[in-house]
């Protein structure tokens, strides 16, 4: 392999343009050599701006390109698995965006192809690379919060603005045609829980709410998850509101509370005796995408599997699918209702 890892990016939409491509361009050990998007009008200007030698609207033309060492696949999850498997079969390692698939059978096929080809997949659980999240995990592992733990996570994303930003509205609306927010943004959240609890899930109860009739699915998901070790998680994952409530990321235990503020860039441990704060000044997105790419490059050069790899991807999808199943089951739960006799709605 050359000094630099030669990368192709397939899928040049929002996350590739705003994060993956600038991160590759700023990295001392990577070279961006090819770009692909099914919409060729996106790739041509990107290629000339970044001095990329090759651009195409058909990723299959890149499969046999010996000048490509590895590939970042940043396509929607309904097309990502096939492209990922094709590059593995072509002998290239892949960093594929989350969720790795929309159903477990397909996710397991990707893992199977990984095993058969001996190539490797890293999953784009970008935010697990945050040093502050690793600090939180260290506190949990050192029993600083005690046990059992309650994880309180509220994530609100994708502002509803159909007039001001129709491209974004159409993209997110289309994504919701392929699953509730828990399947998409929830992929990261399920990965946080995997990283922080280290315990199997034992029970999931979830409810969904659709705030506007024109949405293809619920856009406000709330779930309670129980873990075999007694930990519990309360999740709110929501898209498409015009204004967001404050998000939350807290871990509560018998010895204290940990508060993680990803935007203000600190994590804090509060007990009766002490308050400890760890700060990381670097911008959250820049930091997470940079470290994700560092680890992708290091993984390509080593014999070890990527972390997060397909097993983390399958764990995350298993949990978010359980949320989806529970939500469906709970749609008509207790349809008799409790009535105070004066309710007008
Ligand atoms: N890790 C993160 O923080 C993060 C953040 C946002 C999105 N994502 C994930 O990244 C993926 C892309 O999201 P996005 O918001 O950039 O979407 P997007 O729709 O803006 O971009 C996807 C691009 O893929 C292209 N594409 C579709 N099919 C293709 C094909 N067969 N071959 C080549 N190109 C094809 C589309 O034309 C589009 O340009 C999704 O899986 C999403 O969940 C991850």
Automatic annotation (TrEMBL):
Limits of the Gfo/Idh/MocA-like oxidoreductase N-terminal domain: 6-125
Naturally occurring in which organism (per UniProt): Cohnella silvisoli
Domain of life: Bacteria
Protein name per Swiss-Prot or TrEMBL: Gfo/Idh/MocA family oxidoreductase
Residue ranges occupied by any GFO/IDH/MocA-like oxidoreductase domain in the UniProt entry: 134-257
InterPro entries named in the record: Gfo/Idh/MocA-like_OxRdtase_N (IPR000683), Gfo/Idh/MocA_Oxidoreductases (IPR051450), GFO_IDH_MocA-like_dom (IPR055170), NAD(P)-bd_dom_sf (IPR036291)
